[in-house]
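User: My instructor asked us to take a sequence, write out its structure as tokens, and then describe one feature of it. I'm not sure where to start. Here is the sequence I was given:
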Amino acid sequence: MAALLAGLPVAVVQVDLHEPPMTDAGRRRPVTAGRVRACELDGRRLLDVTVRLVGPRSQWLPAGALDPAEVLPRLRRALADRRLVAWSHADLAGLRQVDPDGGYPSEREEMAWSPVMDRYVETDVDSNLTANRAAARSVVIGPLAEQWRGQLDPRTRRLVPCFAPGTPDRLALMLSRMAASVDASALVSTTSAS
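Assistant: Let's start with the prediction itself. The structure tokens for your sequence are:
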């Protein structure tokens, strides 16, 4: 866990897409806006903006949605040269949808942390990427949190899915608690072995 948080500066990112209600015929309408929130590992806010993804007079726009030309440079500056830590792949896909030209890692380049292997693993097992895992630009934390909690369904003996913390600062707090417990368990195992 320490290797996950070491190295590049980290931005904990959450993207909430604003999806309008379905049409009367049951079809989905296109996403109209995306709210991007990001914070540092200590919980300090880096960014909280809502970016308009459709024309300014479109229906179903949330209040306060800003023009992309106004917001995207600020978004790119806030996330530049940082490792993006998100709860799920959907957050990173939402970030690419909000800012398609932002140079964010593609879905094939996203990395997940494997506590079993204690290293980054490519999420696409068929990928031929030779990315340096220590310099991974994006990391998905949801599966790790599920394993960290370790809550089993007594009937199926499978891990119970973990709910997302809800905000980037809460995810940062969860990361710090996970790091503290992993480091403490490693310390206990090394001292008991000696």
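For the description part of your assignment, you could build on this observation: Confidence is low (pLDDT under 50) at residues 113-133, 184-194. Try explaining in your own words what that tells you about the chain.
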